[in-house]
Amino acid sequence: MQINITTDYALRCVLTLAQTEGLLTSKELGEKINVSRDFVQRIMQKLRMSGIVENEMGAKGGYRLARSPEDIFLTDIFDTMEDTMRINRCVEDDQYCSLGATGSCHMHMFYMEMQYWLSYCFDNTSIQDIVNGDMSIFTGMTPGGGAPLKSLEGMPPLKSLQNMHAV
Fold it and tell me: Which backbone phi and psi does 51 adopt, to 5 degrees?
């Protein structure tokens, strides 16, 4: 799984706006993240339509975040920019499996667990967390990091997995 480059630039635009007071034009944003003004405008249009950024028109216009960086999560940006963030076809909402084995497949269970933790991180990491360098969400999740990963059982529902069926 790899996010597309447009999503990466969208994240960089949002991070740049989170660290900027006032407005930034698409040209200024493009210069800061090293992409063309036109490309920035296409990205910002999607982010604006999803309520992540807003713009002011006019000679002194530009873009700013529509919400506080604490209230914008990675999931918000991924949902806006990506068709899917599911790691495999069998963890999509319809759980399609060419073998018809999602109920008994060990790989499916592994993918579900992996998808849960990936989604958990995206749902619970705000733009402000990234700006602050706060990676505490990973505490205990890395190899040798202490506590093992929890099972899906009893875990709270995730907004990015609202339609996913329980294993």
Answer: 80, 15
Whether residue 149 is predicted with pLDDT greater than 60 in this model: the reply is no
d(CA 114, CA 49): 30
**Burial of 91 from C-beta contacts in 10 A (0-12 / 13-18 / 19+):** buried
Phi, psi values for residue 62, rounded to 5°: 165, -160
C-alpha separations of 24 from 9, 27, 29, 44, 164 in Å:
15, 8, 6, 11, 38
Does the pTM exceed 0.90? no
| Every domain of the chain and the residues it spans | 5-68, 84-161
Q: Does domain 5-68 have CATH number 1.10.10.10?
A: yes
Query: pLDDT for 88-135, tens place per residue?
Result: 888 888 888 888 877 788 888 888 888 888 888 899 999 999 999 888
Can you give the pLDDT at residue 152? 46
